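INFO worker-7 received task bundle
INFO bundle size: 2
INFO processing item 0
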Amino acid sequence: MSASTRAAGHHPPRYPKVWGRIPPQNKNFTGRSEQLQELYEGLRGHVTAVVPHTLQGYGGVGKTLMAVEYAHRYREEYDLVWWIMADQPGLVRSALAHLAPHLDLPGPGLTGVEDAANGVLDALRRGEPYSRWLLVFDNADEPEDLTDVIPQGPGHVIVTTRNHRWESVARTVSVNVFPSHESVEFLKRRIPRGISIEDAVELSEALGHLPLALEQAGALQSETGMSAREYLSLLSERTGPLLREGKPPEYPEPMTAAWQLSVAKLQENLPEAMELLRCCAFFGPDPIPRDLFFPVEDGPVRSELAELMADPIRLSRAIGQLGRYALVRLDNANRTIQVHRLIQALLREELDRPTQDSIRTEVWSLLSASAPESRTDPAAQARYQELLPHVGPARVAESTSPRVRRFALSMLSFLFVVGNYETASRYARVFIDRWAADSGDEDPHVLEAQRLYANRLRDLGRYQEAHDLNRALLPKVRRTLGRTHSETLNVLSGLGADYRARGDFWKAREHDEETLRLHEETLGPNESATLRALHNLGIDYALTSDFAGAQARHERAYMLYKRRSAAPGSPVLLSFWHGLALSVRLSGDFTEACDLGEDALSYGREQLGVEHPRTLRTQMDLAIARRMSGEFEEALELALDVHSRYLRLYGIDHPETLAAAMCLTNIWRVTGELTGALELGEDTDLRYVRAYGPEHPYNHGCTSNVALLYRLLGDASRARSMNESALAALDDKLGRDHHYSLGVATNLASDLSALGETKNAVRLGRGTLRRLRALLGDDHHNTLACAANLALDLRTEDGAAEADTLAETTLTALVRTLGREHHYTMAAHQGSRLVTDFDPPLL
């Protein structure tokens, strides 16, 4: 059925079953019939695979309006139509993800944005439940930004763009200025009081037939009653001054002239609206929350704008006028104002330097005054997310105001809370450079920004940079702020984390004991910062083989912090929760560790999101606990999921990705996927050296995991060589009486036994068992694994009586501590060897 046949019918138009985010049809839409028909036929002509069709042209020619018109005009051809704003590529997947519930798929709140978006793309590709679908990607830039989000399948895709590079990857329908007759038709529709054909022809010629310029001219005449003759006269008078050297060629002279006339008329009729528009010009081009324009008690705001903001009725009228003159985009549903970046630039260039500085300072005041105290509750996070796009364009880093700098530091803290470490790191670097240049490198704001920057470097796996920065920072904060200032204590805590990241576990423990003492003396034992220091010390205890000490400290930190902080969405609380579950697992209570880990993961997913860094850490540790408790299928599901997310979010070489890979390696080993485990384990082992340096204990622990796989695959000689090297390195770094060293020694004894060197295996096993009993206790699972293996080797060496006694006591202890059905217990009962593997804790 053709468009004209449908239009002539008597039945009401049928909307698709899914009709999402489509802008309303423009009642003044004019012409474009041939291009719309070309687009329709081009889309219908590709029935086997999606070939994107682009509406390409420079700004203001009506690409978006044409796409909107197509969606409405041909809606009966589709069961699903979905509109996606593509000017911010990072948000495209989010827009796709919100289509998921309409396809009976889990939404982003359940699976995360990435998985929900992938589910949508797969459903569209398969054409289930809808094969007749249309996606519109509006205002796209580079083709590479959308390569992986344009679905192949039975439906259609339209892309609107200014970028001519799309011509090489998609079939392009060029959208140009109106032909003369369509310009005249548009103006006659846009100006209800009427305009003569002669005036319309002359006006459209003067405006270059550019749809956006025509829209602005029509809006001005409709709102003010200005005649076409007056408009043409003013256009001629004001065109020259508006021309600027170096302006983008896609914004021609007539468009800027029409815009300037709208501004001039606004200035004449409602000057306070003009002041509001000028203020908006110093924000970013993203939506500005309307409620930012609220009286500021102690910030520098121009008197004319202060008076306007103090009168809600006048403010609403001014905002309405901006919208009516087509100078801003109003989103009444979300209560935002948006000004095109070109208009912003032209407004700024009209002003002298002192006025620019005054308005920019005003914007800083509005931004800082609107920032909430909290960084964790949903409303506060939503507000920070609205403010974030304006921090850079508003040049917040240039302010020397303590209040504005405090806002900037609060933004860094917010970015940490939501897990956006890359952006936090980038902004911290900008703030440090500018503030140090303006105020010196020992200014308190500079020192705090450096401390936050060091923390984010560590979160990003850039351990050496973090360590170097903190070492340089500590004497500065001591000198400037004092030895017991809270910021000094924060730097001390960061330096302890650096020692852990470098593998200096004993040094970290000694350092953090002193740091905790200073916190308790200065702040008190129950303050949040003190509890964080206690949590850090708990990590040190776990890394130095005192699992009971670690558990006691983590339990105290978790319980007191949870009691003090009832605010939802706290990554600190989740870290404490995760630390407690980890220490319980290391102590050998796998069931309790699973229960704690499950509760913590539920909290993280619900309060922070499925892909928050702290949630992913918790999920990975739960996968380890599930494996240790014998729940291999559940462990594998968790490990596969978390590893794929880490790969996508952080890349293959990030330390947390590597930890997830080693977690998956160990699970594949216990489930019999030895070849895949070896391939992944070897690759991860090599990458650990690059991430941590050659002497870090984690490198040698990972090597031992790989060696274990070689022995299980029949190459005991290679396993022995690898374990001997790993053990020697761990002995040098940590000493033999460390659970990493003793775990490798346990596996090395098994290598020796497999090679027929039973005497050496017994000798090594006896010494290792004695040390494990002294370090971890008689009933720890690592101790019992070593004992069970020693019993096997004793029996081979004619120590049957001793072997029987040791085997019996070991089996009894395994039943008592782990249960009769645990895989350790069953393996010992069957006379199979037990292993100790390595799971690198995240630092």
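INFO item 0 finished
INFO processing item 1
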Amino acid sequence: MRQHLLGFTLAPLFLLTSACSQQESPIELKDTETLSSSIASLNSYEKTARLKINKLKKLMAKAEHKQIDVTREESVVWFAEQFLKFANWDENNYDAVVKLFSYERYYADTKEQLAKELPDFERKKVIQILDKGINDLSKELAGEIKRRPVNKVDWQNTKAKDNMFVSNGKPIFLYDYFSKTVGQPLTNKDIYNDHLGALYHGGEDLYPVDHDRAINSFLVREDGTFDEELMKELTRIPDTNIGFLVYWLMGIPQWVEEREPEVRKGRSLFTGFDIDNPLAREVWGKIIRKTGELTKGKKVTEVGFVLANEPHWYAEKGHWTQKFQEMTSISSYTLDKFRNWLSTKYQDDINKLNENWDTNFKNFKSVAIEIPIDPALKGLPIWYDWTRYNMDRSTDWFTYVQNELHSVNEDADTHIKIMPRMFMEDSRSGGIDTEALAELTTMVGHDAKSFGSENIRPGKSSKWIEKYAYNWGIVTMFHDFMESVAPNKINVNSESHFLSSGQWRDLDTRTSYVRSVYWLATLLGMDANMGWFWARDPDGSPEDRLEGDLDFFDPGLGGAFAGSNNMQPHVTNEVTQVMFDLNSFSEEIVKLREQRRPLRLFYSETTAINTNDYMTKGYELYENLFFEGFPLGFATKNVIEKQDNNNWDAILVYRNNFVTNEEFKSLQGYLNKGGTVILDSAQSLSLDEYGHPRKAKLVASKGKLIVMPKDADVEAIKQTALAEVSGSTPDVVVKVDNGESFKTTTWRTVKQDNGSYLVNILNLGHTTATVDLSLKNGKPIHVNNLMTSNKMKNSFDIPSEGVSLVEVTAQ
């Protein structure tokens, strides 16, 4: 047991609890009466929990005798015993827990009361998960339900195929935590197991105390040799479990700064150097080639290399990132590359640039620009050119990084932890072209989040809560876009913030929310999920990085602990339980999500760059279309030109005034081949990237062109679009009544080889929804609940945040 800076003294109570938690403990072999006597001195809630653990274990023994799978109950017992241990640590280390609550400003004023209440809160939640485990297994033993055995992850032999991970011949959805307690060996089965996940990984060194397993800038010395001691943190990762590696770009050695004084110019928070700097590129080229060679063929790379952690380069004045001194200037290297980019863009004609920018530069070598750029310039040519270049230069950096890796390890999979806000928010000054990077890497990467309750930060909107139980749209719109532009790639969320984040947390988070959001994300494409975060050492104490003074970064690692899953046995257990269920039905989930997307929403980065509300308004339309029973998709110039146009029925163009000539031509080409385009008004597509009027207009040609009236609202546009894809609606008719004037229930259906239909229904609203199922042809049906193997009526209720997976068969 490690000694921690916070310090603690273990009472005999904790020693007894630890003894009780050992699998072969004599206490567990006693009958209930004797057990009750043995734990008489324990906290009353722990007494109850211990008795329930004993009861559940007895049921498990009966179930195993009947050859009933008890994988789910094994995790319930494991989490119960772990969190009883954690509760005792928290009780015996009150001052340390107060400090942990104090790091998060949302809890700071009530930190003493919360620290006092936390141990019994954890014990009560342990009782809650045990009660559910006992109830579920009792029902199965009584023959009231029959659950499908868990398709467990083979942590040693799972393989990455074209668009999914495969374990034991079946699709598998991987789960783990991105940041796991640093300092613990990867072989520690209290940290790496079926309950928490067992992906091995390097580079989790957020807010680094040391360089634990991180692939970082400090691996190369000034003389070009490698720091072999640091390299051992990578090379000694056991070649037993699959995993992923992270290129951690946050720091840069002092010797590089001394040789290149500009190397910090244009840095961002998690990319601590200028990506255009030649020496920085040289250093990282060496690191990438070396680490790529050393890890070639190793299991720890099966889930890919994360090429960057949350890359962004917001270059506009007043952006919140500037408080971290991000992009406060650019280097001479960046400026020179921008000048070369402009020279190519304007065909080496400075007069064209001057006319467009309203400037009088003598030549491209004299072009200047003020960075950070004034957002008042948005919509003007100078804004577009810089913003587009900022995206292109970051894509160039990641192309370089990936090429260096593939030069020594051509089969290495790659993805980038892209923040969904780079796509979802209206600002486009961050330098990330989401589509380009999804096309570049071999896997799709991100750190999508959700909000399970209201935003805890003052002044932040939680308007979504008026209609919905949680903020599902952040997950769905981003996933639908990524799956549209890269439909045949594995989707990796390498730091999911479904459970908490800097903007939301709820100590008493609903397990129904946890189940719903993980199910929703997986249904929409997520193949691997590494949650944020696991920070308990096996003895219950917080990991090393949480100790000492953590006020240097807010909201940083210290603030992340309070109100997180590290204090929530019900939440942490539910993550594992829903992943067990998803993996039990992995083949069905894949069938449901690999469907044709009949309606495509046209997306233009050009319009996004030039306007203030493109994504906000676009989301409103997306939200209105989401609850119509079929998968939504997106179309871009590249999607239209590179993918089979028969994969959709129509493209809807909404609020896309600014498009390049190439984007315009792609839509016209689609019409020329017989496609259907719906324009929200004649104003769409009317301007080029610089706001110059476009003379050309779309013509129907061999296709169908529908132009909506200028005053058409979202509902009218929606109904027109639905009419155009009506031939692709499923055979199963799903009618929903949620008692509201707006829709909150989403569903997907797919026909199976045996003629039956899979139907997955999710209620994202606050109220219970009544669902009625039927077939278009009017034939009577049988409905079977796949989760319980029980027959159901055609009409049934789904509670708020309820998840339903049923099979519909014609009689």
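INFO item 1 finished
INFO post-check item 1: Residues 1-30, 203-212, 550-555 have pLDDT under 50 and may be disordered.
INFO post-check item 1: DSSP finds 24 helices and 25 strands in the chain.
INFO worker-7 idle
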